[in-house]
Specification:
The protein is of the alpha+beta class. It contains 15 helices and 37 strands.
Length: 810
């Protein structure tokens, strides 16, 4: 159940607008009444907001008047859509956007907004009014006018990252007029939310706006998961409607929540597939953590935007942001229910088996215990600033219309983190039920049924030092990182030019270059200091051809690149640069080619779009799924092909439509074949090296060891990539496979001991010529019964080795 109440009062027409309406009304009244005229309430409606193609482009440094003539797939989630859906966070708003998947902090990243766009990581590609919102936290949507998602590499417009695209949120800003809006929501899951949107006109060219939010909510059918969040966003605008406009905005958001890491997965006996434990009887409401878990964070962002129309052909802009973030995080990611001694065979016990190969019923499923992982609690303080100065010039080149946009982008980010540990109860205070029962955090058992969420006695947060770690009474060790600092500078210059050969045909070309320098410093409990630096030079070009027969049609072909350097996420990644080897790796690069069309129909009320695209990532980084660290640079290519279509706007009066569809076909190109080639070469080198022994001494053992270890590492990595990125999610066509196996002439081998080779050969030749199953032909050409044929020609039995009904292998 969900209840929403909204109260809005608007006084939007003042000054000049009211005067124009009066001039239009007076002549008609003067014929019958020469006295004063009183105007009643006036409502002005526009179709422009109904069709998202009419909206302004995401950032002012794009040479486009609207999304209609932007040569890229762009999905807009309007403020009205978010209001009608009672959207409260950015993640909820993005459920309207196909091609986006949402995670909850997998891979060692900080919990918070975790997005993947067209299959590529986009957690660092979130922007607020065209400037980076670089921290990892759950963003509330109370101050959003709309959300715009650009698909495909967007390095020219936004800079580093953006391999799959960029997510740009547009803030609510002051406008001329007055409007006061209050909203109150209530629903299941103990959900209560209140918002206020207040706009007040100060003078003829100035206004202020204030947005407020308070949210207190749980999650339906999830124990202990709760969030308390509040925010305030004041802003002021000066010079509205003049040549010089200045807007200053501030947003503060504060959250106190308990993170939900879901439930563990388990593998049924004799099954190669794992599934959430809730599929096997564990209640969906089960929260596998402690009541002391918490996520307390704040975000403070100050944004100043200045626009000056210097002449009728030159516009200057300067956007500046200073942001500070803090986080206090304590979590219990219970993530182990496998068939190993470390979890006392949790995945077997869950199905009533005491261990691998044990008899059914030998264990009580209610006694299944999961294990925990993850690091210690931490506190992090981050801050950063960014300034983008740009000039937009409209001037002709000969007889051709031309627009040039150029500027510089300077930014800095820093994150300081303190990592804590847990004191561990003695074995006399607490019984460790997993593994060998030793004093270890990993040996704390978490019951999948009836967990009380209370922390063990003596299980407290502590700042690890050499002294308290030496006794072995904490979850830390001498090599545990206790302090870390990450910082990065980015100096960039960009330029984009759009040249119109005719009013209908134009070409867009642009280039952005970045000098990005990231540094990561850490200190362990033992005092070991480590520092890694990763400088990167990024080169991101882009080009498009745009054909617009009229204002309602746009056809385009675009190509562009984007690059993601090492250390791109000094705030959102616990270890942005994991080693000296990782710091030397080159940026991974994404390239896109996209062809599309956009139409405005029904008098501009309805927008239709469609596009075909291919995104190729080269020099891709292989990330450790356990902790997010860079394992290696595989030089492999990852390719995503697909298409998408959308329709937004007014279909009928009082009936608005927002519909979109994206099809993605991801492929890991070349990687597996290249690894096979490398491993084959390594094997040959090992073979030759092994033959180089003289007097019981082989001086080539180093190359043998190197090649062997490299082969193991490459095969392990590529197997994981192939399984996760290519094979996972496949649906096996059982009927087609059975048909192919049944028609394979090799099946007659099983008939040899019964029919003899000559008749078996005739059956095989006839089955092949008639494209029929061997079993069908054998039924016609032999006296074997259907039961005998089923037994002899059972593919599963044949795969086990040996032949039923006779000796030999045929």
């Amino acid at each position: 159940m969900f209840v929403i109440a909204n109260l809005t009062k608007t006084r939007a027409l003042t000054g000049a607008s009211l005067g124009v309406l009066a001039l239009l009304a007076i002549p008609a009244q003067a014929q019958t009444n020469s006295g004063s005229v009183t105007l009643g309430p006036v409502t002005v409606e526009s179709d422009s907001d109904k069709n998202a193609l009419n909206h302004a482009p995401p950032i002012s440094t794009m040479p486009s008047a609207s999304i209609q003539d932007t040569p890229q797939a762009v999905t807009v989630v309007t403020g009205e859509t978010m209001k009608q859906q009672a959207t409260s966070t950015l993640g909820e708003a993005l459920r309207n956007v196909p091609g986006i998947t949402i995670a909850i902090g997998e891979g060692g990243t900080l919990a918070g907004d975790q997005f993947k766009l067209r299959g590529f990581d986009a957690k660092d590609d979130v922007y607020l009014d065209g400037l980076r919102d670089f921290a990892a936290y759950t963003r509330d949507s109370f101050n959003y006018e709309e959300v715009q998602v650009l698909k495909g590499p967007s390095g020219l417009m936004f800079g580093r990252g953006t391999g799959g695209g960029a997510i740009n949120t547009v803030s609510k800003t002051p406008f001329l007029g007055e409007r006061y809006s209050l909203g109150l929501e209530g629903g299941n899951g103990d959900h209560v939310r209140g918002t206020a949107d207040l706009n007040y006109q100060l003078g003829d060219t100035s206004a202020v706006r204030l947005n407020l939010m308070l949210t207190d909510t749980g999650v339906v059918d999830r124990d202990l998961v709760h969030s308390h969040r509040w925010g305030v966003a004041p802003s002021i605008a000066l010079g509205l409607g003049t040549d010089t406009t200045f807007t200053l905005g501030y947003i503060h958001q504060q959250t106190s929540a308990r993170q939900d890491y879901g439930v563990v997965v388990a593998t049924p006996p004799n099954s190669p597939y794992a599934a959430p434990a809730t599929e096997f009887g564990v209640p969906r409401s089960t929260y596998l953590g402690f009541s002391a878990d918490h996520d307390k964070n704040t975000a403070d962002l100050v944004t100043a935007k200045l626009t000056h129309n210097a002449t009728d052909w030159l516009t200057l802009t300067n956007d500046t942001r200073v942001a500070a973030y803090s986080r206090d995080f304590r979590y219990t990611p219970t993530d182990r229910c496998d068939n190993t001694a470390a979890t006392n065979y949790c995945s077997s016990v869950l199905f009533g088996l005491a261990g691998l190969g044990a008899a059914p019923g030998s264990a009580n499923p209610l006694s299944a215990l999961a294990g925990t992982g993850g690091g210690g609690p931490y506190k992090q303080n981050s801050w950063g600033l960014q300034d983008i100065a740009a000039a937009s010039a409209n001037f002709p080149i000969g007889q051709f219309r031309n627009m040039l946009i150029a500027g510089i982008d300077v930014s800095y980010q820093r994150a300081d983190r303190t990592i804590y540990a847990y004191t561990l109860p003695t074995t006399a205070q607490f019984t460790y039920q997993l593994g060998n029962g030793g004093r270890s955090r990993g040996n704390i058992g978490f019951p999948l049924f009836g967990f009380d969420h209370q922390t063990p006695p003596g299980y407290d947060v502590i700042l690890p030092t050499a002294a308290n770690v030496a006794g072995g009474g904490t979850s830390a060790s001498a090599t545990t990182v206790v302090k870390s600092t990450g910082d990065a500078t980015d100096l960039a210059a960009f330029a984009t030019d759009r040249l119109w050969f005719t009013e209908e045909l134009s070409v867009i070309a642009g280039l952005r270059i970045d000098q990005y320098d990231a540094t990561y410093k850490s200190v362990t409990v033992a005092g070991t200091y480590t520092e890694f630096k990763a400088p990167s030079f990024l080169f991101d070009p882009r080009a498009s051809i745009v054909f617009e027969p009229d204002q309602t049609q746009t056809y385009y072909l675009s190509w562009g690149k984007a690059a993601t350097p090492i250390g791109t996420s000094v705030v959102g990644q616990p270890t942005p640069i994991s080693s000296a080897a990782a710091s030397a790796l080159k940026p991974d690069k994404s390239e896109t080619i996209e062809a599309g069309a956009k139409f405005s129909t029904f008098g501009g009320k309805l927008g239709l779009t469609g596009s075909l695209f291919q995104v190729t990532k080269s020099n891709a980084l292989q990330i450790d799924p356990a902790n997010g660290a860079v394992l290696l640079q595989s030089s492999q290519k990852q390719r995503v092909q697909g298409f998408e279509a959308s329709a937004t706007g007014e279909v009928l009066e009082h009936l608005n439509l927002t519909a979109s569809y994206t099809y993605l076909n991801p492929v890991i190109a070349e990687a597996t074949m290249m690894v096979c080639a490398q491993v084959t070469g390594n094997d040959l080198a090992i073979t030759i090296s092994a033959q180089m022994g003289n007097f019981e001494l082989n001086v080539m053992l180093p190359v043998i060891a190197h090649n062997l270890l490299q082969s193991i590492s490459l095969l392990a990595s590529v197997s994981r990539v192939l399984a996760d990125k290519a094979i996972a999610g496949f649906t096996v066509n059982q009927e087609h496979i059975a048909d192919l196996v049944g028609k394979n002439p090799i099946m007659v081998t099983a008939l040899n001991p019964i029919t003899g080779y000559d008749l078996a050969a005739k059956i095989a030749k006839r089955a092949y010529a008639e494209k029929r199953r061997v079993k069908e032909v054998a039924a016609e050409m032999t006296d074997l019964t259907p039961g005998q044929l089923d037994e002899l020609l059972d593919p599963a039995a044949l795969a086990e080795g040996g032949i039923k009904g006779g000796g030999g292998g045929g």
